[in-house]
Amino acid sequence: MNSTKRAARLQRSAPLLALAAPGVLLLLAFQYYPLVGNVIAFKDYLPFVGVWESPWVGLENFELIARGDHRFVNALTNTLIITLVQVLLVFPVPIALALALNSMVSERIKRIVQSVLYLPHFLSWVIVVAVFQQFLGGAGMINNFLRANDLDTFSLIGNADLFIPLVTSQLIWKDAGWATILFLAVLSQIDTTLYEASTMDGAGRFRQMWHITLPALKGIVILLLILRLGDALSVGFEQIILQQPAVGIEASEVLDTYVYNVGIVDGSWSEATAVGLVKGIVSVLLVLGANKLAHLFGEDGLYRS
Predict the structure, then answer these.
(1) Given pLDDT bands bounded at 50, 70 and 90, which one contains residue 170?
(2) Strand partners, 56
(3) 3-state DSSP assignment of residue 48
(4) Is 138:156 a contact under the CB 8 Å cutoff?
(5) Does the pTM exceed 0.70?
(6) Helical segments of the chain, H only
(7) Which single residue of 2, 179, 203, 247 has CA 20 to 30 Å from 146?
(8) Averaged over 225-239, what is the pLDDT?
(9) Which residues make Cβ contacts (< 8 Å) with residue 3, sequence separation at least 6?
(10) Cα 10 to the center of its chain, rounded Å
(11) Per residue in 96-128, pLDDT tens?
(12) What is the DSSP letter of 190?
């Protein structure tokens, strides 16, 4: 009887399984199969010999992490600083934008503003970096205007001291508008009678936001924070590698660019793979830990155990 039910359920689900099959195959081919390459971290990988024929070296490639190699420590430090800045400054921006858009009375103006905010997300990092260079570079529009008016110019693009504020502002401009979609979707599900009842009780806009709107966003905010924590050691490879020559390795090296520079540029494939493997394991542990913490506070997190 049970086998009959399973067969009938499988037959009903066959069209959905067929639609999902290409996506699953792509996921296996480009996300899970490459994980086998992490075996390089335990070998002295020689490209002309191959992965499986290269000699085993055990944990030798992990020694640079254990001994605190300067270049690795610098990359880790820059990564953590940029992550902290992005969590504190970038993460709240979409929430504020969503609250502002949700409070707009005119739907037409709301759609126009949304379209303007969403547009930068569809630009590649090459274009975004080029736009900032054209505006803020030494020969950019603003500095050319200052020169034309005999005013002092400033150096932002290529200034190592201002690199973190620069990449942070670029990220806000590019992705903050797009990130509002999730928050607006949650806000659209709030029962409007709650606002009407609170208005009858004399609650103003601030108290409505504090007692109705923000509690409704709590679940999605915790979920996104967990996901961001899991991605804490990745801070945008393309964005940073494009600007690295202008500011130098010391100021801009992060773990992702470290793996690229050490592995691809310098040819130390095994050491770079070891760092990448540790980075992935730590990220998974951070997600699991953050999810457990969310459960302790009564939230669902990514999943319920």
Answers:
(1) very high
(2) 43
(3) coil
(4) no
(5) yes
(6) 2-27, 63-66, 70-85, 92-102, 107-118, 125-136, 141-148, 163-187, 192-200, 205-208, 214-230, 237-247, 249-252, 255-260, 269-296
(7) 247
(8) 83
(9) none
(10) 37
(11) 998 888 887 678 888 888 888 889 999 999 999
(12) S
